[in-house]
Amino acid sequence: MSQLYTSQPTVNRLLTIFSSLFHSATRPTRHLLAWLLIAQLALESASSVRCLFRQFLSKQTDVSLNSYYRALGNGLVTDASIRRALTLRALAIVPEALRQEPILLSVDDTTIAKWGKHFDSVSILYDHAKHDGRFYFNGHAILSLTMNVPVLHENAGKQQIRYIAVPIGYVMSNGEASKLTLACQLLDEVMPILEKRQVILFFDSRYAKRELLALALSHPNEHLLNLTNAGHMLMKILPYEDERLSVYQFKSPQELRHALSQRIHKEVFFATLVSKAQSSINSSTLLKALQALAWGDEQAA
Question: Is 179 helix (H, G, I), strand (E, B) or coil?
C-alpha cells in the first residue's frame, strides 16, 4: 500500500486510532478497515464501498476494490467486537477521580420508513408517534445502545461532572428476533466489560419484560430505571483522547467530523503537490512554499 499519505499527521493519527478498533484482525486488514473510515470522514458520507473507492481510496492507496470487500468480510472482525472495543475506549476517557461514578446505559429503538419493497429486512412497522393517522408503514426497525460516561468540565473556574453520550452500536431488526432479544444481546456484549463499575440502565417501558430484567439482575452492579430514552461513536471520544481536538469536547460531533474532513483534504492536497514537485524539480524552496500554502506560515515553519 502506498505510504505517501500515511506520512501526513492527521491521516497517520487516524490510521492508528481507527486500526485499534480491529485488534483481532491481521495488520493489513486493520489498515484497510481504517482507510474505509478515513474515506467516510473525508467525503462526509458513505453511500457505498464502491463510491468510497472511486472518489477517495483509489486516489490515496494502491489497493484494489476487492481487497476492501474482503477486509469487510473478515470473520475476525464483527459488529460485536467493534462494540466491545468502543466500550473500552469510552471507559478510558473517564478521569481517575471519577472512576467511582456510575456508568449510564440506555437502550432505545427507532424506525426509518422505506418506500421500496426490495430492501433487505424491511417489514410492516407500527409507530405510535405518527400524527397523520397512518400508524403502520413499511420500514426498518433499528435498536441502539448508548453509554454515558462522566468527564470533568470546568465552569466558572469550578470543576463539574458532565456526562458524555457515546453511541456504542446499532442493530437492525430482521424479523427473526424481537427487539427485546436484540436489546439483551447488546447488553450481554458490554456488561462483562463493566462488571467492576456501577451501571444504571435506562429503557422504555416496552423493554421492562422478564427477559431483559433477568439479564439486568444477573449483573449485581446494574441498577434499573424505567425511562424513555447515536455513527458518532469515535467522534464523541476523540476530543478526550487527543488534546489537539479538545476544543470539540462539548461541540456537536458533526463539527469535528467536518473539521477532520477538511484536514484530510488539505493533507491529501499537499501530499499530491509534493509528489508532483519532487518528480519534476528537487527544490526545497518550492516545497516550503507549497507547505505554507496548504497549512499556513506558522505550521510550515
Answer: helix
- What is the separation, in whole angstroms, between the first and last Cα of the chain? 30
Q: What is the pLDDT of residue 6?
A: 45
- Give domain limits for the chain: 5-77+252-300, 101-248
> Exposed/middle/buried for 256, CB within 10 Å: 0-12, 13-18, 19+?
buried
SS3 label, residue 81: helix
Cell (9 digits) for 187: 447488553
Question: Is 0.85 topped by the overall pTM?
Answer: no
Using DSSP's 3-state secondary structure scheme, residue 222 falls into strand
Contact 241, 92 (CB under 8 A): yes
pLDDT above 90 as % of the chain: 16
Residues 235, 256 contacting (CB under 8 angstroms) = yes
Whole-angstrom distance, CA of residue 112 vs CA of residue 139: 5
Determine contact, residues 11/267, Cβ cutoff 8 Å: yes
AA letter at 31:
H
Q: Answer whether 4's CB lies under 8 Å from 34's CB.
A: no
User: In angstroms, rounded to a whole number, what is the distance separating the alpha carbons of residues 89 and 237?
Assistant: 7
Per-residue pLDDT reduced to its tens digit, 48-107: 889 999 999 998 888 999 999 998 888 888 888 888 998 999 999 999 999 899 999 998
Nearest to residue 107, comparing CAs of 236, 18, 215? Answer: 215
Locate the DSSP E strands across the chain.
Answer: 103-113, 123-126, 136-155, 158-172, 199-203, 222-226
pLDDT, tens digit, 9 for 90 and up, residues 146-161: 999 999 888 777 888 8
So what's the pLDDT on residue 95?
A: 92
Band (259; pLDDT cuts 50, 70, 90): confident
